[in-house]
Amino acid sequence: MANLSAVSLFILQGFSTIPALQRLSTAAFLLIYLAAVLGNVSIMVAVALNARLHTPMYFFVKHLSLVDLCSTSTTLPRALVAAMADTKEISLAACASQLFAFVCFGSLECFLITSMAFDRCLAIYRPLMYGATMNSQTCVSLVAVAWVSGLLFSTFHTVNTFTLPFCGPNMIDHFFCDIPPLIHLACGDTEVHEAAGFAVSGCVIMTCFALTCLSYVLIVYTVVHIRSSAGRWKAFSTCSSHLATVLLFYGTGSSAYMQPTAHYDPLQGRMAAVFYSILTPTLNPLIYSLRNKDMKVALRKLYPQAPSWNLSFRHGKVQNPTSIAFPL
To answer: pLDDT for 11-39, tens place per residue?
Structure first.
């Protein structure tokens, strides 16, 4: 790779080329990053400390929060420091490492969301099999497969991107090292690399999306055959948070990597990255806490001095009829 690349470092453009907007963006993204760290760490700690949340669903939620925390920490801290210290240079090795980590955690989120869809589908479509199937060994195996798949997927994209020759210019029109702007900078023929990346990404993303859609088809089929409206609402409420995460993830992240690099627009790419790399990991903790009674109780215990979380149900017994506890 070194003999093909005349460029030894890149320059990251940052959040904006306008100084005033750059300062405003830096302040806003610093607050968002702190919120993302607080939210995801709170979810992980709440799940770990509360025995009521030692269930398959919250096992995946805990790992999703870990991935979200790592994903935002891969890009935002360096971009914020660079903006505040006005040091935009990044070495070739550091850029490759950042790309590897970012793609790894992004694909991990995709695989975890698919595993969570399977968990919710089994809980609603085959509740009698749920306890025997979704045991601790199955959950750990699904997360392990997600990690291995993410590492392999990220290794492919990193090698596929950095085996291209970079001989100038070296200005990355982005606030972190991402695939489209890097391929856009390559001075050689990128057609084969772009086609390979597009094929692999399309296959992985569409397979995960198809499996998630299949899970929700079975969920909807089961829910519509429940006679009571209360039963239908109860069944749907167990997967509403996950459905919101699915829509948020596929509505922002997948679209950024499912278009040819020749049509890449720097401003559009930067805006899309804000949604899938910053806002999505920040909003996921809110999604899983605002509409989830068990999580509200756990967070209330974690932050007893915080304002009331609208626990109108606190005198009743809160439980998920499809949750099977196991040690995490």
So the answer is: 988 887 788 888 898 899 999 999 999 99
Q: How far apart are CA 205 and CA 157, in angstroms?
A: 14
Three-state secondary structure readout of the chain: CHHHCCCCEEEECCCCCCHHHHHHHHHHHHHHHHHHHHHHHHHHHHHHHCHHHCCHHHHHHHHHHHHHHHHHHHHHHHHHHHHHHCCCEEEHHHHHHHHHHHHHHHHHHHHHHHHHHHHHHHHHHCHHHHHHHCCHHHHHHHHHHHHHHHHHHHHHHHHHHHCCCCCCCCEECCCCCCHHHHHHHCCCCCHHHHHHHHHHHHHHHHHHHHHHHHHHHHHHHHHHCCCCHHHHHHHHHCCHHHHHHHHHHHHHHHHHHCCCHHHCCHHHHHHHHHHHHHHHHHHHHHHHHHCCHHHHHHHHHHCCCCCCCCCCCCCCCCCCCCCCCCCC
Side-chain-facing half-sphere of 256: CA atoms under 13 Å: 23
The amino acid occupying position 133 is: T
**Overall pTM surpassing 0.70 (yes/no):** yes
What is the token pair recorded at 249?
């993830």
- HSE, CB side, 13 Å, CA atoms: give it for residue 76: 28
Phi, psi of 325 (to 5 degrees): -75, 145
